[in-house]
Amino acid sequence: MLATTEFALLRKIAEEQAAARAPSLVAAITRGDGIAWWGGRGEVDGAPPTVDTQYRIGSITKTFVAVLVMRLRDEGKLDVTDPLDKHVPGTALGDLTIAQLLSHTGGLTSESPGDWWERAAGGDWATLESTLDDRSRVLRAGKQLHYSNPGFAVLGEVVARLRGRAWDEVLDEEILAPLGMSRTTRGPVAPHALGWAVHPYADVLLPEPTPDNGAMAPAGTLWSTVTDLGRWARFLAGDTGDVLHPDTLTEMATPITVDEGDVWRIGWGLGLQLFRENGRRLIGHGGSMPGFLATVAVDPRSGTGVLTMANSTSGVRIAGLSVELLSLVDDYEPVLPTEWRPRSDVDPALLSLTGQWFWGPTAFLLRALGDGWLDLAPADGKGRASRFRPTGVDTWVGLDGYFAGETLTLHRDTTGTATHLDLATFIFSRTPYDPAAPIPGGVDPSGWR
Questions:
Q1: pTM value?
Q2: What is 348-429's CATH number, 4.10.410, 2.60.40, 2.40.128, 3.30.70?
Q3: I want to staple 215 with a disulfide (CB 3.0 to 4.6 A). Which of 38, 125, 130, 175 is the partner?
């Protein structure tokens, strides 16, 4: 990046590391196919941290587990509406759906019963399952967002049951190896940072334990580096390779529930955390474990991503810092629009359908996209807009917006001339309330007056 941009970013993390008294702090900006900038402050084992220094990333682990679950869905091995009992029978949580567990809407307790699991060695699945009884349900399923770490421990077991091996083995094979993330591991592998608690009133440190969390590990056990987490940021920005279909990633990033408040700032999709800051919508996840804090987030519109990691239990404004770094990049080096070029994949047969259509008296514009796709949006840019993918002769399915999942059908007369569009019973005609179109309720025979 430009020298002025890099210095502004470095100054921001330097101020945060000093003010929060973090033993070390690293951050990076991703764009395109790599890391555009990275910086670090503080020390790890007496030397500055590098892009290869491991930090524990806590609940960012959940995003990997969620992708493993959605891969199973895409293969037809489960459906997100399936009850847990279908895949892990016999638990006290069997009626909860996979989607409720992914979106933290199952009403489960936020933490596992017993000792503070993040600082204690974890037991096996049988031990954890024995503690997840009816008392683990603190809210009615589907009532509201209630973040649950045990919910993702359960999802890790779902992956293990359907794949026939431990969830982290599946992770290595299906995600980490294909993406080249060789320094993302279940436990620390040198060089790695030690986790510290910083005394609130003195500049001294207390080491934090980092035990393996057993069956709770899918909720937050992974360690990673700037290089590897940068690759994961690019994944979340859409560079999914052969690991996940882009449509599935979009589905995961669609809000299912939001935190309470007059204006929502944090929500969840299927395993992904959603942020709204300063008019910007971000997807990713935060993470914290004793001794460590981390965040990864991307702006889907620009493709710019950010990651931050620190080896301190608290004090660092890890999420706020990430947003500020993104804002700096947008101010100093905004992403330029992609150059317009004519397309070679527009179906010539669709050109006669483009232009103005009317839903009642409201004007819409139909545009032809590549590969037979269509875009239907209000002419004034305000209101219900969706893209549509072809599903057959003169039929398309909505991909986003109000009409997601709905079928758009083109009707023709006996000569083959297009007469009207039918979209979820809404009739779109070439003129407002065309009397020749089958508009439910009819058109006043006196016409316009």
A1: 0.92
A2: 2.40.128
A3: 125
